[in-house]
Amino acid sequence: MIKKFIRKMLGVKPQANIDGSNSHPKVLSAMEHGIDPRLLSSNAIRVTQTLQENGYKAFVVGGAVRDLLLGVKPKDFDIATNATPEQVKRLFRRAFIIGRRFQIVHVMFGQDLLEVTTFRGAAGDASPKDEHGRVLRDNTFGEQHEDAVRRDFTINAMYYDPASQTVLDYHGGMADIRKKILRIIGVPEARYREDPVRMLRVVRFAAKLQFTIDAATSAPISVMAPLINNVPNARVFDEMLKLLMSGHAMACLQQLRKEGLHHGLMPLLDVVLEQPKGEKFVALALANTDERIQLGKTVSPSFLFASLLWHQVVEKWDAYKAAGEFSIPALHLAADDVLNTQTDALALQRKIGADMRDIWAMQPRFEKRVGKTPYKLLENTRLRASYDFLLLRCASGEIDAEIGEWWTAFIEGDELEREQLLIAKPKSPGAAPVAKKRRARRSPAHKSSPAEAGGE
Ligand code: ATP
Ligand code: MG
Prior knowledge:
By secondary structure, the protein is of the alpha+beta class. It contains 24 helices and ten strands. An eight-stranded mixed sheet has the order 1-8-7-2-3-6-5-4. It has a two-stranded parallel ribbon with strand order 9-10.
């Protein structure tokens, strides 16, 4: 405080350190930052308080501070401290040290999980990197100002102390929040080289927050985009999932395209962004996902990926049928093809792949609206997701809207109504014009499979 006063009197500006870090943050009072303390979670306060009572520094940091400053309730809280992971672990009953690349502590209270990270030190040349300069592991601890310079964007590098209600701003994050600008800390090229995933993060934040990307931050992206190929697939997949589940998926994908990040990088993205036929379906699926997330509803990754890849499945399904395969086995073969490619390329977890297959495989079964079949479907654990998927197909015009309406009535109806629905439409084709065309195209030498016959 005194130092600051003297500096002010002498008109000396705080100097940046050699590594670009700035040891003297702007200290913003409650009046200046305007954070509503009610948006803070009681567990975040509990963690910072416990750490502080034990003599450590502790702050809410990163995305949570950014969201608080924007008046948004953060979805999770990250805590930064000068206590080491072991010291943190000792203070909480349910605390687990995790991570290799960056060691962090997960502190749990019931279902609530808080990530506690120890201030990271200057990366230096010591940390192991791959041949492209990507930092592989980094567990050097350091001072708070060093931690700030290691964070990605100015708006993500602010620290909030719930006790004093002050915000420490090391890199002009507050000014950027006001100007709605996303600005990377340090030299953009170097920061993307250290961690190419930051390029995807820029896009996600820009789309989600509706911020502009600073020109210098955006400039190297299209050139450096291929570096993402060197990042382990699982990490890219995680980031893609965050992007698609940000509640602004469509905007994110448009932004990816704008930044030149979509092409040839991820097989899934190519499929999603460059399939003319499935565009409407994908747009609807993403709009549906965005809406659900904005309403606070859950979205399953399997439903999302099943939607994004559906038209690839349909294309292959048609090809197998044209080659003489029966409809149901053709669908399974098509699903195999798509899943095999995408599982490798995207590190799609097995469970997600299995769920996607179930959703796809259920689709022809909705066409069979006779006898006991519809009742059996009601008991299927995959009904909800598959039915939602069916409605998407109706909405996109792929199949007749009538079939979706029939199923809505059947699912919501009582016993009597269900029986009437079955009587009223005992032999309803329920198939779409597209499906009819497909049949017409099939070689005359083929009879319908028994499974298809049920729906005719
Ligand atoms: P959200 O949780 O809303 O997606 P976030 O900013 O909290 O956004 P997290 O992935 O939770 O994102 O990361 C927490 C903080 O850690 C970030 O705000 C940033 O300060 C830092 N951070 C995360 N990823 C990186 C990265 N790749 N490079 C540098 N800093 C990062
Ligand atoms: Mg976060």
